[in-house]
Write a structure and sequence with these properties.
Elements: H1 11-42, H2 48-69, H3 81-98, H4 101-108
Helix pairs in contact: 2-3
Length: 114
């Protein structure tokens, strides 16, 4: 009886398969941190949180639109586009909650309240 073993991947391929989700997450964090640093450098300090809130909500809407257009899977063992959209929504909500109403009014101009 000839028993043959199926060839397994090399140690390098196993390592790449193990680190792939972590590398994806690190790349996404780096992509998100770049615009955040750019916004922080050009925005006055009191307006930083309202601007971050608006931008992250816009990015979340864009990511969700892309996920819906390309019919991305909802459930997966890896990070999906839907997960990224949800993370940006959470960041936007947190920044909005930490913003002061005066700063939001300053961002949009002074509203006249009768």
């Amino acid at each position: 009886m000839d028993e043959r073993r199926t060839p397994r991947g090399s140690a390098h391929e196993d390592f790449l398969q193990l680190i792939k989700p972590h590398a994806t997450l690190a790349a996404l964090i780096a992509l998100a941190a770049g615009p955040l640093v750019l916004v922080a450098s050009f925005t006055p300090r009191p307006l930083f949180l309202p601007v971050v809130s608006l931008l992250s909500m816009a990015v979340a809407g864009l990511a969700a639109s892309l996920a819906w257009a390309f019919r991305a899977r909802w459930h997966s063992d890896n990070i999906t586009v839907w997960d990224i959209a949800g993370a940006f929504v959470l960041i936007g909500c947190a920044a909005a909650m930490l913003s002061k109403p005066e700063n939001v009014l300053q961002l949009f101009g002074h509203a006249v309240v009768p």
